[in-house]
Specification:
The structure is a homodimer of 328-residue chains. The first copy, chain A, is built from 11 helices and 14 strands. With 328 residues, chain A is α/β, with parallel strands linked by helices. At the A-B interface, helix 1, helix 3, helix 4, strand 13 and helix 10 of A face helix 1, helix 3, helix 4, strand 13 and helix 10 of B.
Chain lengths: 328, 328
């Protein structure tokens, strides 16, 4: 029997989960839950019901794992604990500072409902965290580096759009190649904010807006841009649509460490992601961990978990025998 | 209380484990076991006994985890099952084709002794396997690529040394950069053996040996060199010692995959190791998994495991709370 997945929230992430389920033959999409009017939500999969989120409680025996596709700012802090009482749940909560609190809330709710919840999945937090952890355990003496990009930062794009005279904008975060190379060469550099990333902005102006003033406002914006080397390009609306409508992202996690009786040998562990679609890749991670949640719940496990707690084999559709024979 | 580690076999790997233990404050080296005369084996750590391997059975209550540092060809197939009856064990068995059989033997022995054994650890098999598995689970539609190097291949160096007229030799396996770039660009190339790696040889000749004949014998050697583009450099013994006495290695595991309703988006997951010392890095992996074996055995788990079965958090000296707060 297939693993029956429910999706709560049908934006970019929910649609990505729907696509990912299609690539995993041991899973099926059982229902999409939405806070909008269900008749206004058109999904890609034929024959799958779109249901009002309030009615999810009637689906507890028809869904094995519910993947919650809301935002971290306001949705997930309340949604994940609420639904963890009724379903095994997966979320992508990514407000790093609030993870311990969110974990405690989901843990209490899931235990009360005899359910399992895996939180803060995706790639950062998620696969990047996992690689930081493995690399730290293997090389206890060393330095960690994380670079993000090249990729679209939604927050920085929004910040530019709030400037008077800006019609639309897209901002790319780009790692500084020479700093990345210094890390790879084992130089263990101490890098400032400016030395780690540059910011490149593509801006569409309102008619009559003052380009020089807009550029100045961007480059001096506190927190967002003032500590970075920023480039601003003014382009037409057509060009923005044509060349900058994707949501690519990615980055690098590196650990540079020493071994030997006198720490005489250097080692580098590097993990890199290059993603055409940030939400679709994140969705793929959520779906693989939904398989793990299903299996752990079947064993009777309850409460909250993170990526650090999940045995790798639980993610794979292959049996342990197949994994040992073919992937080890 | 510290985790008490025993080392069985004191070559490059055993010495690497000894160095790694020193970097992990929650561990201590309890004893080194050897098949040689213990008085001929000098170790780095003060005050730790070197003991005849036969006497290991008297140490069962003084060792939490025994790290078996023998070779895969003849040592580990018998040693790991034998010692798994008495100790929680770790090994680096790397004969891919024989892993299922080795797993079964260690599983039976460890269960009989109420012990836990984790086999086939290191970086390939090991961290590379883990990355292949995670990447396959996250991107079910895609292609896998593994490149090794730049690094010293002991087997190929030995093969050159067996040629008449060769005094000493060192062989480096080198990934073909253009193929690596094609994979990174999402071209999903079908690569022949020749297109994946080149081989570079540094050879010291016996006096009077015919360089042209030696070069020809190397380049045409079946299996080892004939399917590769091979470069041969003749150098002096002094230069070999000075510039080629290290044991560096490393490599790349890549998965290139597609997502989206019509598989319209491409993604790349890349894991890279660059290692000054192959045995010391392998040792670091063994030691991190010794921590996991200790914890799992404490929970009463028995039998054989591989890297796919171990929850990541078990490798880390940090608590789950610390991991969630600082590494997630």
């Amino acid at each position: 029997m297939s693993i029956r997945i429910g999706i709560l929230g049908y934006g970019n992430l929910g649609r990505g989960v729907e696509c990912a389920i299609r690539q995993n033959p041991d899973m099926e999409l059982a229902a999409v839950f939405t806070r909008r009017s269900p008749e206004t939500v058109e999904i890609l999969t034929d024959g799958v019901p779109v249901v009002k989120a309030d009615a999810a409680k009637e689906w507890t025996d028809k869904i094995d794992v519910l993947i919650i596709c809301g935002g971290s700012a306001t949705d997930l802090p309340t949604q994940t604990p609420e639904y963890a009482k009724m379903f095994n749940v997966i979320d992508s909560f990514d407000t790093h500072a609030r993870i311990p609190e969110h974990f405690a809330n989901v843990d209490a709710a899931a235990k009360a409902g005899n359910k399992l919840g895996i939180i803060s999945l995706g790639w950062d937090p998620g696969l990047f965290s996992l690689n930081r952890m493995y690399a730290n355990a293997v090389l206890p003496q060393g330095n960690d580096y994380t670079f993000w990009g090249k990729g679209v930062s939604q927050g920085h794009s929004d910040a530019i759009r709030r400037i008077a005279g800006v019609k639309d904008a897209r901002q790319y975060t780009i790692p500084v190649e020479s700093s990345l190379e210094a890390v790879r060469n084992g130089e263990n550099p101490q890098l400032t904010t400016r030395e780690k990333h540059t910011r490149e902005c593509f801006v569409v102006l309102e008619e009559g807006a003052d380009a020089a003033r807009v550029e100045e406002e961007i480059k001096t914006m506190p927190n967002y841009f003032d500590e970075y080397d920023t480039t601003v390009h003014f382009i037409s609306e057509e060009e923005l649509k044509k060349n900058h409508s994707g949501i690519p992202h990615g980055g690098f996690v590196l650990r540079s460490g020493k071994t030997g009786w006198n720490e005489e040998n250097s080692h580098l562990i590097e993990y890199r992601l290059k993603l055409d679609s940030n939400p679709e890749f994140t969705s793929c991670v959520l779906v693989a961990y939904a398989r793990a949640a299903y299996r752990m719940a079947k064993e009777g496990q309850t409460g909250a978990r993170t990526i650090f707690d999940i045995p790798p084999a639980y993610l794979s559709a292959k049996s342990s025998e197949e994994l040992r024979a073919h992937l080890l």
